[in-house]
Amino acid sequence: MLIDVQVFMPLIMEASQAKTFAYNALEFAKGRDITGYEEAISYAKKHLINAHNKQTELLQLNSREQQADVNVFLIHAMDHVTNAQIICDMAQELAELHLKMAEKV
């Protein structure tokens, strides 16, 4: 079985970058570094958008019946994108709470 790394690896890479920047953004917020937080969360969102765009390309291929093989690697990659979305959303919410609490101190 030939596994097309070019299909699933870009999803994993973009999603992983999104998660990393989201966690970095949260750390900046904990340290009350608003500029660092805003920059990191912006990068997280850019990588998440890239991951979604790559995912959409795969869905469009499928709709034109030029689909990529669905295998455990592709499913794993899609899970990375879903997890990245959740992590980015939660990091942003937690970071905003940290920053609001810092304002009150």
UniProtKB/TrEMBL annotation:
The modification Phosphohistidine is found at H76. The keyword Mitochondrion does not apply. SUPFAM superfamilies: Enzyme IIa from lactose specific PTS, IIa-lac. Keywords: Phosphotransferase system, Sugar transport, Transferase, Transport. PROSITE patterns: PTS_EIIA_TYPE_3. It comes from the Bacteria. GO terms for molecular function: transferase activity. Pfam families: PTS_IIA (PF02255). Gene3D superfamilies: Phosphotransferase system, lactose/cellobiose-type IIA subunit. GO terms for biological process: phosphoenolpyruvate-dependent sugar phosphotransferase system. PANTHER family: PTS SYSTEM N,N'-DIACETYLCHITOBIOSE-SPECIFIC EIIA COMPONENT. This is PTS lactose/cellobiose transporter subunit IIA. It comes from Virgibacillus salarius.
